[in-house]
């Protein structure tokens, strides 16, 4: 199971992985830890991240940026319109008021949704992660802004599904930062002690987010959140952009904002200028060569001018910070520290504002760019069964109140089911009385607090509801929940039907009591009786409905809460004289007149629920996934074709240089001229007809060149290794010749070898000596430009053959000499003494009393 944390930012993305050595941020194809959030489309392929950024100026209309701000939004949303107006690409309205982005891909006009663009970026991040881990990746945790609504969160989940990722949790960015901060702290207060309150401020390129969190050992609780989703680094860059555009209009008589490319270039320069001003108090120059109409432009700005230019933006920084502090119910003195992350928190003016609010210096113990992805990786490790992580509970909250709306008898009704600040992964059970299927509409209560214009969450149709036998309304219990992703859904809907049952009609009523059965709270049968539900509801008015629903507002998260009805108590075990019998576990039979006793029972029936939300339908999701797979396959084929083309180009340049260098002495002039002509022709073909050919064509071209070039390269390699191979063979021959000489001289090491075996050694050694000498003499007569008489592989084979024949003979061990009989007798006596000693030891062991048995150990639960 992979443990991956992904931070998709408005401007850049980061990926962290958890290994047994800790959490680390991986690098992309360009060895950069930061991957630009850009996706580009060309007539041949799609490009992502740094590759997309490198070609963005020349391919502006097909390079998509800022798609994070469009995910989960409608086309008519004012924020969507503002985002689209500032982008060079075209967008259109799709059915359902969805956003479609037009691009030219593979020479075709293609319309993609922001979710599909996000999936493309996730695919790239998945690929670089698989390369780093060297194994497939599926499970991950993805960060989202804390202010994201239900529709935006569903859109991110859809994007992860399209890319083939299994998102275990959508984690709020400020919560991820808090997790990365708290899980390593060893000095947090105990659970019963006063919490440590820390403020986390994340200001990036697009938005400002603030979160107040309380820490105890092994626990993180989010107290409050606030955000300004329209205040980030790009807003400060926009001020600089318009400032310098007006200056250049007066100074150079050019309108930079009238052309898309010039606007993009100036925006990039403004971003660089802002970053330099954050670290330098001196005036920072700006110089752009050949900017517009063949004119070079230049200017400069001081930090004080920048702060004065963005004075109103700096004032807006205070608003969400003070709001989060107010919602938390804490005072400034209750704050332990303020942690800042995000690129814009490097601006000195913003740091000063934060410090002045809390009367504390800002803390930067966390990596300002990578804290979010590391927190996501830690959350993924906590959720993973393959990693053992320190216990650390996270209690996150719901940012906006959610209400339910319905109609009964033509009159509307509503109820707030989740308040702002309620814990996510939280359930509530609601009771309705209906005769027929009904619809629950779910929406956010406060439209003004939302970052989107549409407050609707979805509609849920509760099906299968019907009246009881008397024609009255039946009880329907609906369990609603906020998922771990912060998404609203209906977990279950249950119809509770009353039934009448008769106990016994005979003259005797047998009452059997059993303590064990009476204590069971959840009977296995589908029919359950409940004294609490035995009261008949005589009214179906709205007032009666509210009285049933409103008390449920305080129900906590419990899967079994209100979903099962306790079994009624059995008949009394009291005797006729009023005294309770002592043994209630024994069966007793009491005779009474024949009666019919009615017993009320309840049947629980699960109801189907049809939901209409902003998630993509299963069919649309499958189509988008198939389209993504097709684009991945197209990218793979294009990459293979590019590799084949690069191999041809590389061979041309490499072989041409070597023919003039190390290979020159191994090729004659005729072959050299012929090969050089082929190389030059291939080079011209590459930049003409071979600019865009099929992969097969490049492979064939490379094979044609290697057909002439490989023999030359082979001659050089044979020359380089031939002498060393002959030397190795010669050493082996000399070694065995020395052994033969020692054998003839009667050396004791070899006097056990037979004459027949040594004759074989003599024959093999002499043959290899003659073969080696003949080949060496023949090779000396052959020029370097000709193929060798003998190859290195043949010399190596000759050495191995000689070794296989001779070595088993000369390495035979001498036969073992049997020891004298006297020595055997002495050894036998010693052995007898040893046996006697062993017997004595055994006798002594028999005299030792047995060890007492271990005392009984009490089985105690020490957990």
Automatic annotation (TrEMBL):
GO terms for molecular function: ATP binding; ATP-dependent protein folding chaperone. The gene is 100634870. The lineage of its organism: Eukaryota, Metazoa, Porifera, Demospongiae, Heteroscleromorpha. Belongs to the heat shock protein 70 family. This is Uncharacterized protein. Residues 514-604, 809-863 are annotated as: Disordered. GO terms for cellular component: cytosol; nucleus. Residues 815-824, 833-847 have a biased composition (Basic and acidic residues). It comes from Amphimedon queenslandica (Sponge). The keyword Zinc does not apply.
């Amino acid at each position: 199971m992979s443990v991956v944390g992904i931070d998709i930012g408005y401007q850049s993305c980061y990926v962290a992985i958890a290994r047994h050595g800790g959490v680390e941020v991986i690098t992309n194809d360009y060895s950069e830890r930061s991957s630009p959030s850009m996706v580009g489309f060309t007539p041949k392929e799609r490009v992502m991240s740094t590759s997309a950024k490198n070609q963005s100026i020349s391919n502006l209309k097909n390079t998509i940026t800022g798609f994070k701000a469009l995910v989960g939004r409608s086309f008519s949303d004012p924020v969507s319109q503002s985002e689209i107006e500032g982008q060079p690409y075209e967008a259109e309205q799709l059915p359902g008021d969805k956003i479609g982005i037009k691009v030219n891909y593979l020479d075709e006009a293609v319309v993609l949704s922001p979710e599909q663009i996000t999936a493309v970026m996730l695919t790239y991040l998945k690929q670089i992660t698989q390369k780093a881990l060297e194994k497939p990746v599926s499970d991950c945790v993805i960060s989202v802004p804390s202010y994201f609504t239900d529709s935006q969160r569903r859109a991110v989940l859809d994007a992860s599904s399209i890319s083939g990722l299994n998102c275990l949790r959508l984690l709020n960015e400020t919560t991820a930062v808090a997790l990365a901060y708290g899980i390593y702290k060893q000095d947090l207060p105990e659970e019963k002690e006063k919490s440590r309150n820390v403020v986390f401020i994340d200001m990036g390129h697009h938005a400002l987010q603030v979160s107040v969190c309380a820490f105890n050992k092994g626990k993180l609780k989010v107290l409050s959140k606030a955000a300004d989703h329209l205040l980030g680094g790009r807003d400060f860059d926009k001020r600089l952009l318009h400032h310098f555009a007006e200056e250049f209009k007066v100074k150079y008589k050019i309108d930079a904002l009238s052309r898309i490319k010039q606007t993009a270039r100036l925006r990039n320069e403004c971003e660089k200028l802002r970053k330099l001003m954050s670290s330098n108090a001196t005036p920072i120059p700006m110089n752009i060569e050949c900017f517009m109409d063949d004119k070079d432009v230049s200017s400069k700005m001081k930090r004080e001018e920048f702060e004065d230019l963005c004075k109103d933006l700096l004032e807006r920084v205070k608003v969400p910070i003070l709001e989060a502090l107010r919602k938390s119910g804490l005072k400034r003195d209750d704050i332990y520290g303020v942690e800042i992350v995000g690129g814009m928190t490097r601006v000195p003016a913003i740091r000063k504002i934060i410090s002045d609010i809390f009367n504390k210096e800002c803390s930067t113990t966390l990596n300002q760019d990578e804290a979010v992805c590391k927190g996501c990786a830690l959350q993924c490790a906590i959720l993973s069964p393959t990693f053992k992580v320190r216990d650390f509970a996270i209690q996150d909250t719901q940012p906006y109140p959610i209400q339910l709306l319905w109609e009964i008898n033509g009159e509307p009704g509503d109820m707030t089911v989740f308040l702002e600040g309620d814990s996510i992964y939280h359930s509530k059970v609601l009771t309705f009385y209906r005769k027929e299927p009904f619809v629950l509409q779910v929406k956010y209560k406060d439209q003004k607090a939302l970052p989107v214009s549409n407050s609707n969450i979805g509609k849920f149709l509760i099906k299968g509801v019907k009246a009881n036998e008397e024609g009255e309304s039946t009880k329907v219990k609906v369990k609603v929940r906020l998922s771990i992703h912060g998404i609203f859904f209906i977990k279950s809907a249950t119809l509770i039907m009353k039934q009448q049952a008769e106990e016994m009609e005979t003259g005797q009523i047998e009452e059997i009591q059993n303590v064990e059965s009476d204590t069971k709270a959840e009977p296995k049968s589908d029919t359950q009786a409940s004294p609490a539900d035995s009261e008949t509801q005589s009214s179906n008015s709205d007032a009666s409905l509210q009285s049933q629903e409103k008390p449920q507002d305080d129900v906590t998260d419990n899967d079994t809460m209100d979903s099962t009805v306790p079994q009624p108590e059995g008949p009394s075990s009291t005797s006729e004289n009023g005294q309770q019998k002592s043994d209630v576990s024994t069966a007793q039979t009491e005779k009474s007149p024949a009666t019919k006793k009615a017993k009320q029972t309840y049947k629980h029936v699960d109801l189907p629920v049809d939901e209409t939300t902003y998630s993509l339908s299963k069919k649309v999701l499958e189509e988008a996934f198939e389209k993504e797979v097709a684009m991945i396959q197209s990218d793979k084929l294009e990459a293979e074709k590019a590799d084949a083309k690069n191999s041809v180009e590389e061979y041309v340049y490499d072989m041409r240089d070597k023919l003039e260098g190390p290979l020159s002495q191994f090729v004659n002039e005729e072959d050299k001229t012929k090969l050089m002509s082929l190389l030059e022709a291939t080079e011209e073909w590459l930049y003409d007809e071979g600019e865009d050919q099929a992969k097969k064509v490049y492979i064939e071209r490379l094979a044609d060149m290697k057909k002439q070039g490989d023999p030359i390269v082979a001659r050089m390699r044979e020359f380089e290794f031939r002498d060393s191979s002959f030397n190795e063979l010669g050493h082996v021959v000399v070694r065995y010749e020395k052994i033969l000489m020692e054998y003839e001289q009667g050396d004791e090491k070899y006097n056990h070898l037979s004459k027949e075996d040594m004759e074989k050694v003599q024959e093999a050694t002499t043959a290899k000596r003659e073969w080696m000498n003949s080949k060496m003499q023949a090779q000396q007569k052959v020029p370097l430009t000709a193929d060798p008489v003998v190859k290195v592989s043949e010399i190596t084979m000759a050495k191995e053959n000689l070794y296989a024949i001779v070595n088993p003979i000369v390495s035979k061990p001498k036969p073992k000499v049997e020891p004298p009989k006297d020595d055997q007798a002495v050894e036998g006596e010693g052995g007898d003494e040893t046996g006697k000693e062993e017997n004595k030891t055994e006798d002594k062991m028999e005299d030792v009393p047995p060890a007492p048995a271990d005392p009984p150990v009490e089985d105690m639960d020490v957990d």
